[in-house]
Every structure is written in C-alpha cells, then in structure tokens.
Specification:
0% strand; mainly alpha; 23 helices; globular; 78% helix; binds phenylalanine
Length: 522
C-alpha cells in the first residue's frame, strides 16, 4: 500500500475550501463566455435552462467528485484505482469496444487514428480505472498550457490599462492591437510563463498556506471588483437596452442547440471532468458536509457568471457598441467601451475589469496545476516542491509551443501534418486544435467516465456513506449500517441523477460535439 505523502495536507476551514473550489470553478468561462451565450440564446429563458443544467447534472457530478476525492484521500489516478472494485468490467467494456473501433478504423485506412485508438484502448484494458484518472490529469495539464496564455494576455492588458495604453476610440484600433499581441509568440510566451510561475508559487506553498491563503484573499477582492463594475455599468444612461438584450426571456430563441450549449457550459463552468474536484475533495477533513459545500460553490459560480453580464452588457449597449463573441468581446470591444464612459476614468474601469479576469483565470490555473502536481507527488513519491516545479516546466514547455502557433501553424508545419494525419483535418492554428479537442472531446468523455464511476462502479452504497459523513444524517446511516438510508429521498434522487440523468446528458453533449445532431438541429 503506497503512502500518499501529500495527503497529510488539509484545508484549514470550510470558508477556505469553498473559496478555493469556487476559485477553480469561476474562470474565464464565467466572465467571458457565459454572458455572451445568454444574450444570444434567449436571455432570461436561457438562464433558467442553465440553472436547471447546473442542478440536474453539475451538482450531482460535483458531489460525486468531492466524495471520490475525500474517500480515497489520493490524487486523481490513485483515487480511481483505489476505489474501483478489483474486477470492474467498465474499463474492459470500453477497452474492448475501443479495440474493435481501432481495428475498424485501420481497415478503413485511418491508419494514424486507428493506431491511436488501439494504443489508448490497450492502456485502458491494462490500467483499468487508473487510465481514466491519467486522462483527467493529462487534460488538466494540456488545458493549463493554453489557459496560461490567455492569463498572460490578461496580465499584459492590466498593465496596458493602467498605463492608459488601452484608450482606443475605435474597435478597429483595439483589434489591431490584439492581433499584434496574439501573433507575437515572444510576448505570449513571456506573459504565459509569468502566469505559470504565479500559479507555481502558490502551489509551492501547499494547500493551506498557498492555495487556500491566496483564494481567501483574492476571491472576496474579485467579488468587490465585480460589484463596482456592475454599479458603474448599470448607472450609465441607456444601460437598460443592455439589460433587455441580456435578460428578457425570449423563449422563441431557445433551440435544442442552445440547450446543449447550456449543458456543456454548465459542465465546463463547474470545472468538472478534470479530476480537479477529486483532488480538492481529497484535502477535505471528514467532518465537512460535502453537499452543502458543493451547493455554495455552484451558487457562487452561477452568481458571478450572471454578474459578469450585468457588468458588461449595460455598458456595451450604453456606449452604442455591438456585443461580439469570444476574444473579440474582451479584447476589442470592452477597452473601447470603458474608454467611452464619461469621466475620463476609462483606464480605471478597464484596469479593474482585467484584474477581475486575471483573478478568475489565476485561481482556475492554480487548481489545474495542483491537479497535475498532486499526481506527481503521489505516483512518483515526489516532494511537493519538486512536483510543482516539474509540472510547471512540462506545462510551460507546451505553453511555449502553443504561444508560437496561436494564429497559424506557420512556426510548426510538421505539427500541422501530424494533427491532420491523426484526426483527418486541422483547424487554423495549434491553439484552436488543442482547445477544440480538449473542451469538446476529452473533457466530456472524462466527465462521463467520472459520472459512471461514482454512480455505478464505486457505487451509491459507498458514496452515500461518504456523502453523509459530516452531516446530521451521518449517525443515522452508520447506525442502521444496512444502507437503508440510501433508499431515502435525498440519496435516492442523487443516485438517480448521477446514474441516469448525468451520463445520458453528457453523452448528448458528446454527440452534439461530434455533429451527430446537426441534421436534426438545423
Ligand atoms: N471553470 C472554469 C471556467 O469557468 C474553466 C476551468 C475548467 C478551469 C476546468 C479549470 C479547470 O472558466
């Protein structure tokens, strides 16, 4: 039996744990993407659907990940290995299926993809659930490598804002400045490196002093900043048009595609499917109520996402700008919007906004780095500091490669060929490809596997015990000791969601990503 040397660490307080977990959940997705997809998909009507997705799929999965973490007190790979029954047939089923699929691909001339599928399936058969844990940790590392680049841009933009260098009058000027940054590999790599170093320093100091200490400090600061921006934005003349765009329920704008988008975003926003919450859960003392903590995290995450819309849209509409999608909104539209606010304080509003975005990205980055480091600590028996350094160097190296291929593959034509050979096609840049495969494919697949693991493999019987620990029901359950409590309402309904609803819904996200619904939805 291995001695998990990192698991002498614990969160110091419930508040600290909630701040850290909410810090992971609240990220670029909340401030960057959520408001925009709400505006486009039917405003208030979409918000209702999103909240339902959080409740029906997000919360059960989150509770499951926390419980798996706390019960195993191990990193992601160790957790799944430790809790899975010896002869769990799921990995065999999927591994076997994968072998079949790989062979078919080979026969259909998809040589590279076929080989990849075969190798992964073989690993799944050999490692069992440990392989799923590994896939979770792997994707956490890859996601951090490009998340860090955006985090780096935010550091740079905060600096630009406070030196009044973002005082653009036209969106064309702002977007020219942004394109210049994105196509400058040196700058992206340097600032991305600074972002990784910042995360590295926090993880270096450990769970309580580092992650919890920083989260307790910056999360309330973030809440303060967002409130200031919301007030500023809502009190602008003409703000009401933005509110109208953002929140008026337009049920006729709700489409099946929008529902799936809400579902996918709920999943991403809560940081599910990357074993982050398993790792954070593993530092929870036994006397904490997992369900209550998860509810707090989900509520905070949703509130910040909603507030972000209140900070952005009233201002954008009041200044007569057009809301745009993705990076365009943050880096092209908002600096111009803030600059146009009367009172010559554009630099302050932009500066506060970019600090807000930075904090959101930073606490998410910390959770990603911690997930990777925890696995090095447990699997390779490394000391925390060495593990944090090693993870940072590995992730940083990939970050550098991605930095030089944000707008195109020009710097690495070979990479383009490899991606194209394996997947049959490649997007415009390595950055886009990595993002696409991670968020549209690996993340939901991992999420599906984790839901199956908590609902079926480890099983409701064991998980109910873990969930009741630290609650008023703990003793009732332990006294009965016959798992009768699981038949009672709260656990039975949770079990229903994690076993049936969550896997089916996540499977639908995957089908949507694969374009299977395209014909039906259009
Ligand atoms: N939850 C984060 C967001 O809303 C994204 C994220 C996912 C961060 C997974 C870390 C890990 O942006």
């Amino acid at each position: 039996m291995s001695v998990e040397n990192n698991h002498s660490e614990h969160w110091g307080s419930r508040f600290g744990f909630i701040m850290a977990a909410a810090g992971s959940a609240i990220g670029l997705g909340n401030i960057w993407k959520f408001p925009y997809i709400v505006g486009l998909n039917g405003g208030g009507a979409f918000v209702l659907i999103y909240i339902l997705c959080i409740l029906l799929v997000g919360l059960p999965c989150m509770i499951g990940e926390f419980a798996v973490g706390r019960a195993s007190r191990s990193d992601a790979i160790g957790a799944l290995k430790k809790l899975a029954p010896r002869n769990s047939f799921m990995p065999k089923l999927f591994g076997g299926y994968g072998l079949g699929l790989g062979t078919m691909l080979l026969m259909n001339d998809s040589l590279e993809l076929g080989c990849l599928v075969l190798v992964l399936s073989a690993l799944m058969l050999i490692w069992g659930w440990g392989f799923i844990g590994f896939a979770n940790v792997f994707v956490a590392g890859v996601i951090l490598s490009y998340y860090a680049i955006i985090g780096g841009w935010l550091i740079y933009y905060t600096y630009l804002a406070f030196t009044n260098a973002l005082a653009f009058k036209e969106t064309a000027e702002a977007s020219a400045a942004f394109v210049q940054l994105a196509s400058n590999g040196h700058l992206s790599a340097i600032f991305g490196g600074a972002f990784i170093i910042a995360c590295c320093v926090v993880c270096w100091f450990g769970v309580k002093k580092g992650i919890e200490g920083v989260s307790k400090l910056v999360m309330p600061l973030m809440l303060g900043i967002i409130l200031v921006l919301v007030i500023r934005s809502l009190t602008l003349p003409g703000a009401i048009k933005g509110l109208d765009f953002y929140l008026t329920p337009r049920f006729s704008n709700i489409t099946a595609k929008g529902v799936l988008e809400a579902l996918g975003h709920a999943f991403y926003s809560l940081s599910l499917g990357m074993a982050i919450l398993i790792v954070y859960g593993s530092y929870l003392p036994k006397n904490r109520d997992i369900v209550k903590s998860a509810c707090y995290v989900a509520v905070l995450d949703t509130c910040i996402a909603l507030f972000a819309g209140f900070a952005i849209f009233p201002a954008v509409f009041a200044m007569g700008m057009n809301p745009a999608a993705g990076p365009g909104l943050i880096f092209n539209i908002l600096p111009v919007t803030f600059n146009a606010i009367p009172g010559n304080l554009g630099w302050l509003w932009s500066g506060l906004f970019f600090i807000l975005m930075f904090i959101a990205a930073f606490t998410s980055g910390i959770s990603l780095l911690e997930t990777v480091s925890a696995s090095f600590i447990s699997r390779l028996r490394m000391k925390r500091r060495a593990a944090v350094l090693l993870s940072s160097v590995l992730i940083g190296s990939l970050m550098v490669v991605i930095s030089y291929s944000i707008v195109s593959y020009n710097a690495f034509p070979k990479l383009h060929d490899i991606i194209k050979e394996i997947f049959g096609s490649a997007k415009g840049s390595f950055f886009d490809d990595v993002d696409f495969y991670c968020s549209s494919w690996i993340l939901p697949m991992n999420g599906l596997a984790l839901a199956i693991f908590s609902g079926w493999t480890w099983g409701v019987k064991h998980i109910s015990r873990e969930i009741y620990r630290g609650t008023k029901l703990e003793h009732v359950e332990l006294d009965l000791n016959k798992h009768r409590m699981i038949l009672q309402f709260p656990m039975a309904s949770w079990a229903f969601f994690i076993r049936f609803i969550a896997p089916v819904m996540i499977f639908m996200i995957l089908c949507y990503g694969a374009g299977l619904f395209k014909k039906i939805l259009n």
